[in-house]
Amino acid sequence: MKFILAFTLLAVDCVSALGPAAVNLRTAGNYAILAKTGISTVPKSVITGNIAVSPAAGSFLTGFSSTPPTTFSTSTQVNGQLFAADYKSPTPSVLTQAVLDLGTAIVDANGRTNGTGLILNLAAGNIDARILTPGLYKWTSGVNIPTLVVFSGTARDTWILQVAGTLNLGSASQTLLIGGAVAKNIVWVVGGEISIGAGSRVSGILLGSTAATLKTGATLNGRILVQTAVALQKATVTQPK
Do the domain assignments include residue 15? Predict the structure, then answer.
């Protein structure tokens, strides 16, 4: 009986993960939200994890009513710490590296190719009600999800979704994870603006070359790491485990 159990566990452990190699966020992964030009909130948002702006100063963390900074500050809206480029050392150099690591992650995710395994321009970008199995997806324009998208895979499987244009999720839309799929293994790399509709429930890592907006009541299980600004409107962001 012990032999059968051990063999079963070994067989499960040897099952290969599906999808592309994971994107290494490096120190950018230390933040639930990281932006270069600003992070704003319409209170009350609820953020679990650290947030940071760089090279922007702490004055570009708006709406948080944060405490006076040392190497970090705090806010009742953030279950974590707030950081900015003008806080006390070593914060500025730490954030400089995090922003560089964000740029590296974006280049990495955007540069992935998978030969004939690449899924190109699925549904011409309107992927509403689609079930996405692990893999590398690419759209040469924008992506719209009016109501629902499903990620089906195990906790080991990965997705990289390259979007040249905008990423728009409609009001009350959701990303559904089934089969054990986890948010930290879903990476959206988006060239245009990211817009998450009011009341939406979204999962995944959002890497953006421009701005991201989470509208009223939107919920993200993931991270928002962008090269311009993040705007939260009474939104909830929880970094994935």
Answer: no
**209 found inside a domain:** yes
Query: Cβ atoms within 10 A of the Cβ of 67, count?
Result: 12
Q: Which residues of 3-38 are buried (b: 16+ CB within 10 A; e: fewer)?
A: eeeeeeeeeeeeeeeebbeebebeebbbbbbbbbeb
User: 8-33: per-residue pLDDT in tens?
Assistant: 444 444 568 999 999 999 999 999 99
Neighbours of 112 (CB within 10 A): 16
Count up the domains in the chain and report the number.
Answer: 1
Question: Is 20 within a domain?
Answer: no
- Extended beta strands in 24-127, E state: 33-35, 38-42, 46-48, 51-53, 61-62, 78-79, 82-84, 119-120
42 touches 63 (CB < 8 A): yes
DSSP 211-226: -EEE-TT-EEEEEEEE
Low-confidence ranges of the chain (pLDDT < 70): 1-15, 115-116
Q: Is residue 216 part of a domain?
A: yes
Domain range for 115 is: 25-238
Contact criterion met (CB below 8 Å) for 237 and 47: yes
Predicted TM-score (pTM) of the model is 0.93
In angstroms, the Cα distances linking 18 to 10, 21, 117, 160 are 18, 9, 12, 12
